[in-house]
Amino acid sequence: MSRRGNCWDNAVAESFFSSLKKERIRKRIYKTRDLARADIFDYIEVFYNRARRHSHLGGVSPEAFEQASS
């Protein structure tokens, strides 16, 4: 999947992890691994995928975009 020396191959993953770190993880200290796991799960399933607006989708959330196209 990723070619050696080509940064664009991994751009989607890099963008996601950058957002995760800036919006959720930075400046937080988790007491247990389970608390960290639960917080990251909440970010991915509740905030990032469903509610967050995406410029690529015309400024609407993926959920709203999917409902509009149905």
From TrEMBL:
It holds the Pfam family rve_2. GO terms for molecular function: nucleic acid binding. Residues 14-68 form the Integrase catalytic domain. One of its GO terms (biological process) is DNA integration. It comes from the Bacteria. Coiled coil: none annotated. InterPro entries: Integrase_cat-core, RNaseH-like_sf, RNaseH_sf, Transposase_IS3/IS150/IS904. This is Integrase catalytic domain-containing protein. It comes from Citrobacter werkmanii.
